[in-house]
Structure formats: structure tokens, C-alpha cells
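for the record, two folds in this file. i put them one after another cuz i was lazy. first one right below, seq on top, C-alpha cells after. the second one comes after a little note so u can tell where it starts
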Amino acid sequence: MRSEQEMMERILAVAREDDRVLAAYLKGSRANPAAPKDRYQDFDVMYVVTETVGFLSDTTWLNQFGSIMLRQEQDDDFGYGDRFGIRGRSQESYSWLLIFDDGNRIDIGVETTACLQSGRNRNKLFVPLLDKAGCLPPLPPPSDVDFHVKPPEEKRFYGCCNEFFWSLCDVLKGIARDELPFAMTTYHSLTRSMLEQMLAWYVGCRTEFSLSCGKLNKYLKRYLPEDTYAAYTQIYSDGDYVHFQEGISAACKLFRKTALLVAAHLNYRYPQEIEDGFYRYQDILRHL
């Protein structure tokens, strides 16, 4: 695997040698002073360019970064462009995700100066790398403050509690029907996301809302108490329905414990009636 220095030198060399590139800046975790540094980090780079069309019409310039093993680009079906709603904007900006045969990964984008000035593709995680045209804006040192856990309004806290138990009703119905794909997908896409939201608020309460739990809450293990994180690991299960029910029970216990702590810290009321309604519904299904 090429070193960080080797990769950065290659990224800068490509930018310097291409007259269409006006400037380059670094984004993502490598621009985040609070992110742990390791060999798995991507190189999230944006080139500010005179126009984007040429970069799309002939993509052989991407080979300058190394031998590409896997790639995905902004307008691919089912790709990140779909997830983030950025397909069809190639005239203003476009990007490619590249994994090379040495294991390194570059997420490289091109954007026009107009797009740069709009700030559409950047946030406070911004490190200038090269500015041949003097077009990069003066910004303060990089910070992940935009991604810090934010304290919820009481109605949002209530909504999280409601969605956690409401979605679990669908999970139980899917189990009762022996519809494992529906039950498992609902559990992990809806129920678990609400649990993780509550855990993130709990982390915020413990830290005065001064940090980020990372993309998809990947830093929960770093910031939760050891016993709380151990309880979190118990919510996962295999395809066995008995184990699945055990995971659901663990999720309910952890959600309640965490939500009560968050409610106490923020002086909110925990909606016990929602939890009670869920357990009544669970009893009905058990007796059918």
C-alpha cells in the first residue's frame, strides 16, 4: 500500500500538470483533526476546474492515480449519487470513487468555480492543497463542528421514541408472518436507527454536545460507557427468530434506559404510554 505522502504527492502532481485544474482541496476524515488516523482513510479530494465536460468525456486521466481495481461514479444506478440526490449535475460538479490495487482509495471530484463559490460541495472540513488561480476562499482551520451531535427539541425526542416502538410493531408483525426480510430490514433500517439516534443524544448529553459520533455513528464505541456499548452489541442477531426476539428485547431495554437519561438531562418527559402501547401490541400478537 502506498503511503499517505506518496498518495498526496500523486494527487498534487496530477493537479499541477493539468491546466484545466485551477485549485485542489482536501475534504473528509483526513481533513478532520478529531478523526482517528489510520491506513483505511480515504483521500477525499476536490479539484476546482475550468469546466467539467472534458473530465467526463475522457476519464483516462483517472489512471494517473494508480491501477483502478473498483470504481463507482456519481451517476451510477444505485450508487452514492442516488443516495445523496446529486445525479444529473455533471455540468457543475462530478465525482468518482476509486479503489486501487494496493488498497488505497481516492474519492475525487471536479467542480467549477461557480460551484466552489456556492459552497455546495464543502463544509468546515476544508484543507487547501493547491491554488493556481487564487480562487479558494479563506476559511478558518478545519473543524467537524457541523457534524456535532445537536440537542433535540422535545418534539423530536418524542418522535424518536414514537418511531422506535412504532417500527418495532411492524418488526413483530413480520416475525409473526415468517417474513424475515421485511422484519429484519425494518428492524435495522428504522428501529436501530432510532436507537442509535438516542445513543448519540446520550453521548451529546455526556459531552455537552461537543463532538461528532461519526458517519453512521461509527464512533459510538469510543464515547459510550463500556457497559452501555456492550448492551448495544446484544441488539444484533442472526436469522433465528428466537435470537431475533432476544435482540429486540435487548434493544428495548437499552432504548428505555438511554431515553430516560436523555429526558432527565434535557428536562423532557419520557412518553411511557408509547412503550406501554407497544408491549400491549406484543402481547396481542403472542396470543393470536
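(here's the note) second protein begins now
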Amino acid sequence: MDRPFIALTLAYDGAPFAGFARQRDQTTVQGRIEEVLQTVLRRDVETVGAGRTDTGVHALGQVVSFESAGDEPEPAELLRSLNALAGPEIVAKQLRFARPGFSARFDAIEREYRYRIVDGPTPPLFLREVAWWNKRKLDVEAMSEASRALIGEHDFRSFCVAESAEGKSTVRAVKSVQVERAVEAGEECLVLKIVGNAFLHSMVRVLAGTLAEVGSGRRSREWVAEVLAARDRAAAGQTAPAHGLTMWRVSYPEDVWL
């Protein structure tokens, strides 16, 4: 009999981890949560993550899935146990049961990432671990206009790690891009919000670095469209620092849930 799957929504501080995906002899988010699950459930557990965040990247809505054995503790009890053992850098926020065969990665229909930038001569204090300090003041309107070229289904080869794209499709669909100012923990920052079906290796960070070039006035608003058309990583801007990026949420069709 096919068993239901369990979907865990995780938040984590990416600073102490060598990325999300398990690696031998490295401390990773997936490795840590699998160790904790094995301790709590007293069996081997292999998880699938919705996205493979890089070293230093944070998450508020990462989702991992694994097959239920049918003898797990009640959801509230399991969450308490996970948070007692996995923390303080990882927090299990939600547990849901999904249909047999559910995959946190392949069943996802939408992902949202947010990138924070504190711009100007004054460095951030409370946001220093979750935002890139860019000493130039950035033009939000120029960045917003330039970002419109990214919306839709395109080949984003210019905006990913070149080696990761070899022999693979680099076509992705971006649903929306927003660049706006916000105040978080009493400090002003610029937030890049991007929603799409999936993202390439370092894609959001390269987009952030590229849009910052436009915001600083070093590049024109039309330049982003030219970079997109080039299909060449060398045409784009820098890869923005990892600590400014947060995996915000992952969405699924309603019919996957039990």
C-alpha cells in the first residue's frame, strides 16, 4: 500500500551551513534535518528539498518531503522534537501530509525569493547578516523598469553559474519581479522580490547584482534586456553576496494535500 508523504516547511539561517544539499564531511541543512529525523523517528530518512540553496543563503519557506511510515508522532509533537534537536539555526514551521509519491521539488509550481540590499554610505546593523551593503545609493525606479525585461519565459543562461548550465536547459518562467523599499528591524532596505516556476544556480543573486549596476547608474535601463539576449554569463553583472538572499516560499497545487 502506498503511504502518504510528509512535507516539512523549514526556516534557517544559512550562515553556518555549506548550503542546503547533503554533502559528505560538510554541515548542510539537509544533512542536519535528516540526522534529526533519524533520531526522532528511529529509522533512516531521505528527504527531497524544494530548492538547493547555496552556502550562506537563508530560507523562511524551504520545503522538504519524505515518505511516511505510518508510525510518526502527532504533527505538533514531531515539530516540537525537531525544533528541540535541530536548532537554533533551523526551525521546523509546519508539517503537512501529502499524497503518495509527493516531491517537494517536482510538485512545486511556484517559488519566491527575496534579496535585500541596504544602499548608501551607512552600514546596516540589525540587517547586516541578511542584506548586502551596497555603498552606492540605488535608483529603485530604474531597477524596476529594467527588471520588466525579465518577466516571462526566457533563456536565463546569462544569469547563472556557467558550469552549471552545460548540457542543460536554462529556460525558466519568471512570473513577477518587484523592486521596492521597505523598513525591517527599523532599518531601510531595498527588497528585490522575484517569483517563478524554478531558478538556475545563483540566478537570483546574479539578477540582483545586475540590477544593482542599473540602480547605481553605471548601466542603462535597457542593458538588462541586452544581457538576457546575450545568453552569456560574462555579459551580466556580479553575483551578489549569498547572505542577502532568502528563499521566501514555495507553492503547490491544492490537490497534493491530504
